[in-house]
Amino acid sequence: MMIYKFYQQRIFPHLLNQVMQTPSMMDGRAELLGKVRGEVLEIGFGTGLNLPFYQEVDQVYALEPNRDVYQLAQKRVFDAPFHVQHIQASAEKLPFADHSVENIVSTWTMCSIANLDKAIQEIHRVLKPQGTLHLIEHVQYHDNNTLKKLQDLLTPIQKVIADGCHLNRNIELELLNANFKFSEKYYFDAEDLPKIGRRMFMARAHKL
Ligand SMILES: C[S@@+](CC[C@H](N)C(=O)[O-])C[C@H]1O[C@@H](n2cnc3c(N)ncnc32)[C@H](O)[C@@H]1O
Fold first, then answer.
1. What tens digit of pLDDT does each residue of 44-81 get?
2. Which atom of ligand 1 is least distant from the CA of 64?
3. Which of 19, 52, 165, 176 would you call most buried, defined as having the most Cβ atoms within 10 angstroms of its Cβ?
4. How close is the Cα of 91 to the center of ligand 1, in Å?
5. Mean pLDDT for the chain?
6. If DSSP codes are grouped into helix, strand and coil, which group holds residue 14?
7. Rounded to the nearest whole angstrom, what is the distance from the C-alpha of residue 183 to the centroid of ligand 1?
8. Measuring from each residue's beta carbon to the nearest atom of ligand 1, which residues come in under 6 Å?
9. Is the sign of the CA dihedral 203, 184, 94, 208 positive or negative?
């Protein structure tokens, strides 16, 4: 147990910081974030890897429950040409008023949220009526049954080594079921990642 705690606090945050800088992921960030304007709430801010890709934002609320992970964001936060405010909270209970946030960003966070239904409800609650949820997530295959099954099989192990990360979520369906519609969406495979976590879903979603 002590070894696992050491892994969680001292090793995992550095691994996360490295893996999340895979070139295809950095390209995905550029594509998703370049045109985002104004105020942004990032859920699962991680180590701040999105910050250099914002061209036109005024303020970022950096929601990150894990202190050990946020520690590694400090330099990027300091270098950002706009204000970044850390909010130590979970997406299942967003400390924001109803219909108050213009943009919400989730990059590879929905895989890790323990109660995703609740978090999506919360995102729906705090998003302004004309607001946008910008997201890129790794998801379950829908066109390859072998890999799909393998994702189901390996998720319990992945959850232990990668801080609760599920390999087998269908984020598009979760959002549709929670009264979101899409103005943009597509799937692609990130060739520089292992097959098991390669299928990506990029989208801009709005409240119905
Ligand atoms: C795979 S990392 C992605 C980090 C960052 N978004 C990025 O693109 O590099 C997932 C992040 O979600 C955070 N997280 C886990 N559970 C969460 C929850 N319930 N609410 C908000 N963030 C959560 C983790 O602490 C971690 O920083």
1. 999 999 999 999 999 999 999 999 999 999 999 999 99
2. 22
3. 165
4. 9
5. 97
6. helix
7. 24
8. 16, 20, 43-44, 46, 49, 63-66, 69, 90-92, 107-109, 112-114
9. negative
